[in-house]
Amino acid sequence: MARRAASSLVSRCLLASRAASAGAATAVPSALRRPDGTRGLLPGVLQRFSTAAAAEEPISPPVQVNYTKLLINGNFVDSASGKTFPTLDPRTGEVIAHVAEGDAEDVNRAVAAARKAFDEGPWPKMTAYERSCILLRFADLIEKHNDEIAALETWDNGKPYEQAAQIEVPMVARLMRYYAGWADKIHGLVVPADGPHHVQVLHEPIGVAGQIIPWNFPLLMFAWKVGPALACGNTLVLKTAEQTPLSALYISKLLHEAGLPEGVVNVVSGFGPTAGAALASHMDVDKIAFTGSTNTGKIILELAARSNLKSVTLELGGKSPFVIMDDADVDHAVELAHFALFFNQGQCCCAGSRTFVHERIYDEFVEKAKARALKRVVGDPFRKGVEQGPQIDDEQFNKILRYIRSGVDSGATLVTGGDRLGDKGFYIQPTIFSDVQDCMKIAQEEIFGPVQSILKFKDLNEVIKRANASPYGLAAGVFTKSLDTANTLTRALRVGTVWVNCFDVFDAAIPFGGYKQSGIGREKGIDSLKNYLQVKAVVTPIKNAAWL
């Protein structure tokens, strides 16, 4: 069942969003900025966003926060400095809990624990089957505590509870079972040599891995990184995003309940310039894996190089094209493009944030995209049927609004949305721009919010050139009935993933990562194991060999 939940992400989300929008309540008009910069409703554009839950009192989350300290050597401990920082509810901006703030000294303690666990502890010396069994028990515990984990994720992050409980937490369990299956299937080779030598090629764990995860998918990014590292026999120190520390601490406790030895997984909550930088530059960390912005990824790469030249895996930003050809079923294309952009409040590195639509169907597409956005249900993510919760925090909230102002100021047509929703929390109206040009900031830079930019194109060669004219290369979507067109685009687009007539289909076995400035290496699938293994050749002379 977990595998079906993971691989059917698109269909389940689309069905849920259609049902939610079909039964949505009407909402109030929204004040917008006119093209001339003045405030007010755009002529002929009456905004009726569905805000069934936005104006109501926040629902009390059905979970308690029990873990707020650092996890070092199997124990929850205070930070060395004794400092804490608040983690906030994006629905209100109010404090959920105060979490221990780790810094360089805490990273030192965590790395020391991980190093001892690797050099002296039982984990790398266990049989691969024993490690596999621990990961399988961990997956069982995740399923057992599905609802509590999902509630923590929604409370701390703002994503819809139904999304967390029905899709993301089951995907974490599935990923752990996937990597449990790999643990006892990692093997080397015996290779022939030009002479009397026996040659073995061994795949060995790399040692202590440092891992830094983002705030948009805290649970899934935990699984993407921790799963392969443990399957390969490594130990690790994981730094959570300061915006969303709670779910990782909770499931790390479950990992120890499953039988993980002390010191194998250590979790430090803290900030990038302190804890993150200390981890990336630590001389006793053998590998660093980071998911986040491209600019921060460049800093991580530099710190790794300047310290001990540790290996680096980066999954970074994107500005993914979603190409809709003129043979498309427009209604279906509108729904899929809507999902590709607005899923998870638009806070996806692979979001289809450049919607390229063929000129023959452009006007029809824009009108139907507007109608779909106006039906989108925005509100308290704990309420049933809500499609879009708040943005993560005030920094991201204000950044998105600045991009919206930039779009208006640069001459794009604001079709719908364009402002905050309500007066509490970090809610933003689903926003659509048409007449977007490639030179505009909203077409070039990663907004990471619910802002759809719709661009017009004439032919296949043109859209290939424009789609590739980006420093990013994480993902792309193609929507067409023509197999020939699909084949042309999938080979021409310089990205790590191309979804044809679908989007955001994630499976444990499908590798994910980017071209160009969207990253280095791949996560998930067999390719992710390479991030946590190193290769050793062992050569032994053979005397009187019966065969070579």
TrEMBL record:
<keyword id="KW-0560">Oxidoreductase</keyword>
<dbReference type="InterPro" id="IPR029510">
    <property type="entry name" value="Ald_DH_CS_GLU"/>
</dbReference>
<dbReference type="InterPro" id="IPR016162">
    <property type="entry name" value="Ald_DH_N"/>
</dbReference>
<dbReference type="InterPro" id="IPR016163">
    <property type="entry name" value="Ald_DH_C"/>
</dbReference>
<keyword id="KW-0520">NAD</keyword>
<feature type="domain" description="Aldehyde dehydrogenase">
    <location>
        <begin position="76"/>
        <end position="538"/>
    </location>
</feature>
<feature type="active site">
    <location>
        <position position="315"/>
    </location>
</feature>
<dbReference type="Pfam" id="PF00171">
    <property type="entry name" value="Aldedh"/>
</dbReference>
<dbReference type="InterPro" id="IPR016160">
    <property type="entry name" value="Ald_DH_CS_CYS"/>
</dbReference>
<dbReference type="GO" id="GO:0019752">
    <property type="term" value="P:carboxylic acid metabolic process"/>
</dbReference>
<feature type="signal peptide">
    <location>
        <begin position="1"/>
        <end position="24"/>
    </location>
</feature>
<protein>
    <recommendedName>
        <fullName>Aldehyde dehydrogenase domain-containing protein</fullName>
    </recommendedName>
</protein>
<dbReference type="InterPro" id="IPR016161">
    <property type="entry name" value="Ald_DH/histidinol_DH"/>
</dbReference>
<comment type="similarity">
    <text>Belongs to the aldehyde dehydrogenase family.</text>
</comment>
<dbReference type="GO" id="GO:0004029">
    <property type="term" value="F:aldehyde dehydrogenase (NAD+) activity"/>
</dbReference>
<dbReference type="InterPro" id="IPR015590">
    <property type="entry name" value="Aldehyde_DH_dom"/>
</dbReference>
<keyword id="KW-0732">Signal</keyword>
<dbReference type="GO" id="GO:0005739">
    <property type="term" value="C:mitochondrion"/>
</dbReference>
